[in-house]
Specification:
Helices cover 41% and strands 20% of the residues. The chain is α/β, with parallel strands linked by helices. Bound molecules: zinc ion (ZN).
Length: 368
């Protein structure tokens, strides 16, 4: 008798375990480029390895604070040397869902535009279409030369030989589409905070080739340009860049949740979402349901933006709301029953978003 009760309990345990296993956390692997003896590119004072780490840690913190259903894994969280192969292995062992490698760009000392070149680019694995892209991959891959036995370890790959890059052509890249999606979000948010958008690019990066998950390599900006060096070294600059990548992560995560059917996650921070729901309810209650109201639409986004997003800077956050249409988030400001009041709101919003316009809502749905 006792045995059968035990069996039932045992059976229950097995029954319960797969339930938990099914709702596993999303794993993001953040890879601050270089570290330790490998300083990366250098400016007049700044070193790439420090900038990369600064942005990476800020990004990881933002993600951990916002999402309970995401595990943040770093390939390094201090100033240590990690080989490219080990970075990929850390990511693969953690069964990462997304790999974000963070780097700072530079051009050759002899380049005429060394002091003026600027802009951010996000790379996915692929065949370079320009010498410029190949040069970036060569520089980033060349760190393997700091390892003693690199020829054996990297299967004869010579980071400086253009011929070597043919191996990336043969590399099956089943995650390319998702990698490009995320890269596009990153570039979009960089340009939203006023950074120069040098686009989504492709080249043969060893670390991207060896990670078996959607993977990108972000080149934040050029350390050889004194103005950018100053920005990249500043805590506020690093924070801004981290926030932009964080917003991109939010877009990507949302899309990935949607496709995996986990849109309503049990693990999300309940307190936060409750607060948001309360606010929304309060707003909805203030005007009778069947009455037509005017709102100012000012922004659309492929993913949901965080409340603290830079897009809302300087705006009264209590007035900001959104509705979803064709999978796109459309952000609105204010709510007025009177058309004149709406016109006043429009004027205010247009000082920041010149394309903003008035829309009409009835019973929570857009009618015009
Ligand atoms: Zn680098």
């Amino acid at each position: 008798m006792r045995l059968s009760v035990f069996n039932i309990i045992l059976a229950l345990c097995f029954f319960i375990v797969p339930e938990y296993a099914a709702s596993r956390n999303f794993v993001v692997v953040i890879d601050p480029g270089h570290g330790g003896k490998d300083v990366g590119a250098v400016g007049s004072k700044a070193r790439e390895k420090d900038i990369n780490l600064g942005v990476a840690l800020k990004l990881g913190e933002l993600i951990s604070d916002e999402y309970d259903d995401v595990d943040v894994i770093y390939t390094r969280d201090d100033d240590t040397f990690i080989s490219l192969q080990d970075r990929a292995e850390i990511a693969n062992k953690a069964h990462g869902d997304l790999f974000i490698s963070i780097h700072t760009n530079s051009v050759d000392r002899r380049s005429k535009n060394r002091k003026t070149v600027h802009g951010a680019a996000t790379y996915t694995l692929g065949l370079h279409r320009s010498e410029e892209n190949l040069a970036v991959a060569k520089r980033e891959n060349s760190v393997i030369e700091l390892e003693d036995d690199y020829t054996a370890k990297y299967q004869g790959f010579d980071p400086n030989s253009t011929e070597s890059y043919i191996i990336f052509e043969l590399n099956q890249n089943k995650h390319l589409e998702q990698s490009v999606d995320f890269a596009s979000y990153v570039q979009e948010h960089f340009s939203q905070i006023g950074r120069k958008d040098n686009g989504v690019r492709q080249a043969g990066f060893w670390v991207l080739a060896k990670t078996s998950m959607p993977a990108v390599l972000v080149e934040l900006d050029f350390i050889c340009n004194p103005t950018q060096e100053k920005y990249l070294s500043s805590s506020s600059g690093q924070k801004e860049l981290a926030e932009a990548i964080f917003e991109a992560f939010g877009n990507y995560k949302e899309a990935s949740d949607y496709y995996s059917g986990a849109l309503v996650s049990k693990n999300k921070k309940n307190v936060k979402s409750d607060k948001k729901a309360d606010k929304r309810q309060k707003r909805e209650k203030s005007i009778p349901e069947n009455k037509t109201v005017y709102k100012i639409q000012f922004l659309t986004s492929p993913g949901k933006l965080s409340e603290n997003s830079g897009y809302f800077k300087g705006m009264d956050k209590k007035q900001i709301d959104y509705y979803k249409e064709d999978g796109v988030y459309k952000y609105t400001y204010g709510e007025a029953e009177d058309k004149d009041d709406a016109a006043k709101m429009l004027k205010k919003v247009r000082s920041k978003y010149s394309d903003a316009f008035i829309i009409e809502f009835n019973a929570g749905k857009r009618i015009k």
